[in-house]
């Protein structure tokens, strides 16, 4: 059947019997609603670098932690210094948190300072509780894996830290600006992996106090810092870049005396995460081919 | 046209219930009515449904002993079904294998193997798939390889065809201009259909109450979230509107919670799973049918509702806009407010008496008929039988064209399949096969025997002494 001889226009309906064969392909209408790369915004390099800083920071925090552990293990660092440093940084961060909170809450809610101070008291109480629990647990943790060989511990902690890096929540959400933190399952898993890794590492240390110092440091860097991070990111670009650079520098500084090879590898890793990986992503975009059409599962809009 | 022997192959068939199952059965029954011989090949079901069974209009069903892994689909393994398929296709003298549904691995295997026995292949795709999730990507890759050498593809809607063409990459280089791609001309659109007599409207008792019917699997893909969000708002806006919801699924909990929270127990009735036979009686309780699917290839439920005289409100997704003329259905975007608007308009339209169920029924009756579907499918078979069969070299050349990695893999599968087939030819020679001798179904003879059997049954109930003898005679039937 020739379409030129047909007078009736082809319609995209099934209920009407049309004088066209069933395998007729309407030239204009066919696949007219196909969208390629709809709503596609190409990435640009520098914003990506800025976003990649989150990952760089995360990796540097792990490296700083490992550097600290090695120092503690080889008695190059006094655990008391570490404990004091932890307490000091906790207080500084807490003060910052309150300041940020107050700055945000000021315009809309005029809540009484009463509940605020109650909150502080609560925080203080629970932090002392955590502190004491860790103190009392540290002898147990020190001998926890005494029967396990060190090689297994290194492997285990490496796997756990890898898991932590893979599952961590790197999104710079605006949710955190509203004061509530939506932690997803993966970020909880990631935190647990990091804490488990620190516990197995801590069990290699020789004294109770160094175990305690390391676990305290782990709690600060793997539990409290990730909560703080999105806030800092939202605060100012300059500060964020400065923190990233400082953490990277500190990680390299801690590792440098221990081993040149490791330092070099870590420096390369940090550099490539920050600068090379975004470049790869920008380059790979030209292969993007996203097809959308009426067959896609619609997203229901429900209030 | 001449009489054809057709084998429908799919994982989805009676005793399982669903759209594809119903489609295969109805199409087969109507092809038989048109004088063809049709058999169905599917996997076995628990409680001993394996082997050969007959369904009513002389439809022979082969239940091959494969165990389904999930949702009635068998494990895709390319080769294990070949011994069964070879024997069945040869002994039944099959000309055309017609596979159904893209998630049915037996169907795909039949399409793959059919050329070995010199049998032609047709594939019907019933569903829509996206392109961006892992499951879709995997099935699409399988589909590209399997449909590379199929003789014809049938889709149930125009949207479905666009989707299938993209998923199966059914385009070849244009012979005039090799840089361009041209769609294959063996992709057809033949809609689903329904038996209009089973969905007759009933005149509702005169009452102020207007009932909205929802019959759907209660799953995310069916947009139950939209129903949960809009139902309380509709109930609040129209005090004379009630809901009847039929179906079961993971989202039932959400519906129950919504009903509890808004205290709508007397306004929203939840029926649970509805048997296919009861669908019409549920539909006849209402005057508006609401469908909130997020994706739908054809939407047979809406057609059934329209046929039963209900006014249909649906989300504008997939192939739904194609199935009914605009004055029998109204559309909403998948958005809570827009669904509310569409339902409100429908309620006003129906309350004003502007929708006549009997006129709607008569119109749907003229739109869809299984006989038309069978005729159109017959035309596809005819075109396939006329087209030249590809030889093995051509097949391998086309398979290699699948891609740098996929091409060699699929070619290896093709070669292994051929070797396996040669082994089977040696192991179970064709001369040893038990060929079906009598291909014609004598309807008069069947009726005679059926009547006879009925009489003996009746007698055996009346006369318990003669039971043993009667049982013997009924077995010999």
UniProtKB/TrEMBL annotation, chain A:
Chief localization: membrane
Pathway terms, separated by semicolons: Glycolipid biosynthesis; glycosylphosphatidylinositol-anchor biosynthesis
Places the protein is found: Membrane
Biological classification of the source: Eukaryota, Fungi, Dikarya, Basidiomycota, Agaricomycotina
GO biological process, one term: GPI anchor biosynthetic process
Stated name of the protein: Phosphatidylinositol N-acetylglucosaminyltransferase subunit C
One cellular component (GO) term of this entry: glycosylphosphatidylinositol-N-acetylglucosaminyltransferase (GPI-GnT) complex
Gene Ontology terms, MF aspect: glycosyltransferase activity
Membrane-topology annotation of the record: Multi-pass membrane protein
Family: Belongs to the PIGC family.
Species, as recorded: Ephemerocybe angulata
TM spans (from-to): 45-70, 82-100, 121-141, 209-227, 239-256, 262-284
InterPro entries the record matches: Plno_GlcNAc_GPI2
Keywords tagged on the record: Glycosyltransferase, GPI-anchor biosynthesis, Membrane, Transferase, Transmembrane, Transmembrane helix
From TrEMBL, chain B:
GO cellular component: glycosylphosphatidylinositol-N-acetylglucosaminyltransferase (GPI-GnT) complex
GO molecular function: phosphatidylinositol N-acetylglucosaminyltransferase activity
Domain PIGA GPI anchor biosynthesis residues, every copy: 47-133
Entry keywords, A to Z: Glycosyltransferase, GPI-anchor biosynthesis, Membrane, Transferase, Transmembrane, Transmembrane helix
Xref: Pfam families: Glycos_transf_1, PIGA
Annotated transmembrane regions: 405-428
Matching InterPro entries: Glyco_trans_1, PIG-A/GPI3, PIGA_GPI_anchor_biosynthesis
EC numbers on record: 2.4.1.198
GO BP, sorted A to Z: GPI anchor biosynthetic process
Keyword Transmembrane in annotation: yes
UniProt keyword Glycosyltransferase, yes or no: yes
Top-level lineage group: Eukaryota
Pathway: Glycolipid biosynthesis; glycosylphosphatidylinositol-anchor biosynthesis
Residue ranges of domain Glycosyl transferase family in the record: 199-348
PANTHER family associated with the record: N-ACETYLGLUCOSAMINYL-PHOSPHATIDYLINOSITOL BIOSYNTHETIC PROTEIN, PHOSPHATIDYLINOSITOL N-ACETYLGLUCOSAMINYLTRANSFERASE SUBUNIT A
Its job: Catalytic subunit in the complex catalyzing the transfer of N-acetylglucosamine from UDP-N-acetylglucosamine to phosphatidylinositol, the first step of GPI biosynthesis.
Protein name per its UniProtKB record: phosphatidylinositol N-acetylglucosaminyltransferase
Organism phylogeny: Eukaryota, Fungi, Dikarya, Basidiomycota, Agaricomycotina
